[in-house]
């Protein structure tokens, strides 16, 4: 029986590979499925994972450890921006964002009850809203809006009972937030909701069917994080603080620091990662993995619990971002994936159809997986282990 599996999606090519770890055997494959890279993969109980097919407009629940890969497919509004569930993994919400448009244009929100198969679409507010789904009583959907910034609270049952035709809905409650929010997290154990802004990480706690503001966690650096992630094993919030000139043409000079805030002690740890493009991260059993893309050479960065940092060189990508260009447009990137129940780290090599499988304990590349898809823009990946606790983070990554 396979202990761990790796899901690798090429959202442009329209393929999803499921590979056994560490031998790389293909145990499943989907074609004609263009998964939303931005909404990402959402870990669910029982080793399942949710994602959104942006071309077909479907929420997919995949069971890579079961007999059939696609367990459920539910129509949802797209382009999918963010994906989240309640702590039980039953109630899901999908927000819509830019897609290939230069400006926000969609105000559609979809809610789904996986237990009954019910789903409903409503209109909220045009933008790129983040989303969390709260339990602890009447389930709530919390949308994080920008310009004007706010956490908008909706009762899940009200949204699910909305009539056909995508009616406009009004929040049950609002909590003001700075206009530049970007990055969301939820800690089911404490009941806290987190939103990243330039002033720090804003916290809020449920009170009845509304939210009350808590303390703002400072960045403790002249930079900010654009992405939040809950470490379910070590009870911490993580992000990368990006500093330097905001001009994307100057991306090789961007500074990057790993930011870890311990939710038990309240202490914050900063670790310098080096210049260039560092974004998403992943958790192994006892390390946190990042990738750094830079014209002088790419690296896999493995940050141990004791603060030691190992740098693992990665082979260059032929379509990598270059000096004088942006790191976003028409270039290749890397995706990183890990499981808190294993010691493996997977790093994609965009444009080459390759995945480096690295032992996080040693930094050694154990195998290089070669797929029959190029992995445009780096693709997206998720590494799953049975009962690894990853579903304790109820946001898509």
CATH fold type: Methylamine Dehydrogenase, Chain H
Q: Main beta sheet: strand number and arrangement?
A: 5 strands, antiparallel
User: What's the CATH class, please?
Assistant: Mainly Beta
Strand segment tally: 33
The total count of helices amounts to 1
Radius of gyration over all CA atoms, rounded: 20 Å
Could you say how many structural domains there are in total?
1
Taking the alpha carbons of the first and last residues, their distance comes to 26 Å
Low-confidence stretches: none
Helicity range:
under 10%
Chain-averaged pLDDT: 97
Structural class: mainly beta
| The CATH architecture | 7 Propeller
Quote the beta fraction: over 45%
Which outline best applies?
Answer: globular
Q: What is the H level of CATH, i.e. the homologous superfamily? A: YVTN repeat-like/Quinoprotein amine dehydrogenase
Protein name: YncE family protein
InterPro entries: Quino_amine_DH_bsu, WD40/YVTN_repeat-like_dom_sf
Organism: Streptomyces bikiniensis
């Amino acid at each position: 029986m396979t202990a761990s599996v790796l899901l690798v999606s090429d959202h442009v090519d329209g393929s999803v590979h499921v590979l056994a770890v560490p031998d790389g055997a293909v145990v499943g494959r989907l074609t004609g499925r263009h998964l939303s890279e931005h909404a990402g993969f959402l870990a669910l109980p029982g080793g399942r994972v949710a994602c959104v097919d942006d071309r077909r407009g479907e929420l997919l629940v995949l069971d890579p450890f079961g007999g059939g890969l696609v367990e459920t497919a539910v129509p949802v509004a797209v382009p999918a921006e963010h994906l989240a569930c309640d702590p039980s993994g039953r109630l899901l919400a999908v927000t819509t964002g830019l897609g290939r448009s230069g400006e926000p244009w969609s105000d559609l929100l979809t809610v789904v009850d996986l237990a009954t198969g019910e789903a409903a679409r409503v209109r909220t507010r045009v933008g790129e809203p983040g989303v969390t789904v709260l339990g602890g009583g009447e389930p709530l959907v919390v949308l994080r809006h920008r310009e004007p910034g706010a956490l908008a609270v909706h009762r899940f049952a009200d949204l699910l009972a909305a009539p056909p035709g995508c009616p406009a809905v009004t929040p049950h409650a609002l909590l003001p937030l700075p206009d530049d929010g970007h990055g969301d997290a939820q800690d089911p154990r404490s009941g806290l909701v987190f939103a990243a802004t330039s002033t720090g990480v804003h916290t809020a706690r449920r009170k009845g069917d509304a939210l009350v503001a808590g303390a703002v966690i400072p960045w403790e650096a002249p930079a900010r994080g654009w992405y939040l992630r809950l470490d379910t094993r070590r009870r911490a919030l993580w992000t990368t603080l990006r500093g330097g000139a905001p001009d994307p043409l100057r991306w090789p000079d961007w500074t990057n620091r790993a930011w870890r805030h311990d939710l038990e002690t309240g202490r914050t740890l900063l670790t310098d990662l080096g210049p260039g493009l560092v974004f998403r991260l992943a958790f192994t059993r006892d390390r946190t993995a990042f990738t750094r893309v830079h014209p002088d050479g790419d690296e896999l960065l493995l940050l141990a619990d004791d603060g030691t940092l190992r740098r693992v060189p990665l082979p260059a990508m032929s379509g990598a971002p270059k000096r004088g260009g942006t790191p976003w447009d028409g270039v290749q990137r890397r995706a990183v994936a890990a499981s808190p129940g294993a010691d493996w780290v997977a790093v994609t090599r965009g444009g080459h159809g390759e995945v480096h499988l690295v032992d996080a304990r040693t930094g050694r590349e154990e195998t290089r997986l070669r797929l029959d898809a190029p992995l445009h823009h780096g693709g997206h990946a998720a590494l799953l282990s049975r009962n690894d606790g990853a579903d304790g983070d109820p946001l898509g990554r």
